[in-house]
Description:
The chain has 390 residues and is of the alpha/beta class. It folds into two domains: 4-48 and 353-389, Urease, subunit C, domain 1; 51-346, TIM Barrel (Alpha-Beta Barrel), CATH 3.20.20. It has helices at residues 71-83, 98-111, 115-120, 151-160, 177-186, 200-209, 232-237, 254-264, 316-326, 331-336, 340-346, and strands at 4-11, 18-23, 26-32, 40-48, 51-56, 58-59, 62-63, 86-94, 124-127, 165-170, 190-193, 213-214, 242-246, 269-272, 284-288, 291-295, 300-303, 309-312, 363-369, 376-384, 387-389. An eight-stranded parallel sheet has the order 5-8-9-10-11-12-13-14, with helices on both faces. A seven-stranded mixed sheet has the order 3-2-1-4-19-20-21, covered by helices on one side. Strands 15-16-17-18 form a four-stranded antiparallel sheet, with no helix packed on it. Helix 1 (71-83) crosses helix 2 and helix 2 (98-111) runs parallel beside helix 4. The longest helix has 14 residues, at 98-111.
Amino acid sequence: MTRSFTVRGVILGHEHPSDIHVEDGRIVSIGPVGIAKADFGSRASIIGPTLFDIQVNGMAGINLQGRAVVPEDIGRISGHLAHGGVSHWVPTLITGSQEDLEHGCRVIAVAMHDPKVARAVPGVHLEGPYISAMDGPRGAHPRKHVRLPSVREFDRLLKAADGRIAYVTVAPELDGAIPFIKAVVKRGVVVSLGHHNGVADDVARAVDAGARMCTHLGNGLATQLKRHENPLWPQLAEDRLVASLIADLAHLPAPVLKTFVRAKGCERVVLTSDCVHITGMKPGRYTLSGHDVELTRNGRILLSGTELLAGSALMLLQGVVNAAQVTDMTLEQAYACATTIPAALLGLDAEFGPPEVGEKAEFVVFDIDKTKAQWKANVRGVFVDGVAHV
């Protein structure tokens, strides 16, 4: 039995709405809006490519950290992300014991034996353990497992991941960081600077050694910084570094996000969610990395009894819309920061172009509610590899 859908909206970059007709997962026609009712979308909806989120710690109660994670969890997260418009993503393992990290790497590698998971996941992000042990730069990472860079130890993790580590976050000021960066880059792994307290010389040496990215720039920092000698300015000034940014307007308030985008330029920005396992759950109290936290009604995760952020519950499409609202970027430019730019950086073999007749349907249909001070992205429907997610 043929399954057919009519999708209506303005294709990103176009001026006028179109109807996209999908049969059995493939696009059979794209044309002017017809008189029949659409299955997804409206004349005011937007039809854009699905997204690539390079930093996902968990979702919908599924936590990637520790020994409880199993291969099936990776596929389940892929399904949850697809409903939000994300077709590709990078599982993130934060600082932990060698045993826990090797377990996480093995689990993700096994999960990638499933072709659907392998299509969605290009590899692992190791966010640590080679980060600063200082309070502030360390963030919520457990101090007892923070350690100096070790190529021998990293190779064990790379083997556990079946060679599929996409990138690793490193503090450049640590003893041994520079030779470590050189060695990791030779293994085909992208190095990102993050959770560090390095200054201009540290950043320059790391970039010369091959580092090409900053992990959630503006976060994972000391709460108080020296005016001039701090980790922020050299990373903003270095054109060889692409900066990933959490655009939830809480981790980076609107003026900060706008300034960072201006400093880096759209072509050197990646938008990410950095979401944690309570993302998508009901507001309430939870435990996160051993801390009591509260997921508020407006989607912020706070240490219980405080206004301190304890993680992100952002869905990436909302981050794209936030960036388009509060920075100088157009929606198309913000979209590139969550599709083609991270794909090129991490070597993801995927295209994020407009819908084409004869191709499998792969796009997200959404509305932008501009009636409130902060615009809201509302997903109307998603197709990933020809499969409808509603």
